[in-house]
Amino acid sequence: MAEYPSEYQLDVALRDGSGARVRPITPEDGEHIRDFFERMGPESRYYRFFRVKDTLEPEEIEYFTHVDYDDRMALIALHGGKMIGVGRYDRDRAEPGVAEVAFAVSDAEQGKGLGTMLLELLTTYARTHGITQFRAFVLGENRQMMRVFRNSGYELTRTMDSGVFTVDFPVEETETAFAREAEREKRAVAASVLPLFFPKSIAVIGASNDPKSIGGRLFGNILSEGFVGPLYPVNPSSRVVRSVRAYPTVADIPDEVDLAFVVVPQRFVLDVVTQCAEAGVRGIVVISAGFAEVGGEGAEDEARLLEIVRDSGMRMVGPNCMGLLNTSSAVRLNGTFAPVYPPAGNVAMSSQSGALGIAILDYARRSNLGISQFVSVGNKADVSGNDLLMAWEDDPQTDVITLYLESFGNPAKFSRLARRIGVRKPIIAVKSGRSAAGSRAASSHTGALASSDEAVTALFRQAGVIRVDTIEELFDVSGLLANQPVPEGTRVGIVTNAGGPGILAADALESYGLTIPELSAELQQAISEGLAAEASTRNPIDLIASGGPAAFEQATTHLLNSLEVDSVMVIYVPTSPEGGSDVAAALRRCQDEYEGDTPLLSVFMQSESAAESLVGKNGKRSIPTYTFPEDAAHALSRATGYGEWRKRDPGTQAALPVDAVDRVRSVIDEALQRLGDEGGWLESEEMEACLQAIGLRTPVTREASSLTRAQETAAEIGGPVVLKVISDEALHKSDLGGVVLGVEGDEEVAAAFEKVTAAVTSHQGVLVQEYVPEGHEVLIGVAQDPNFGPLVLFGLGGIYVELLKDVSFRLHPLTDVDAAEMIRETRSHKLLEGYRNNPKGDVAALESSLLQISGFVSAVPELVEMDLNPVKVLTPGEGVCVVDARMRVAPVPPERLPAMRDLPGVTSNPRV
Ligand code: ADP
Ligand code: MG
Question: Which of 342, 397, 462, 567 reaches 20 to 30 Å from 658, CA-CA?
Answer without folding.
Answer: 462
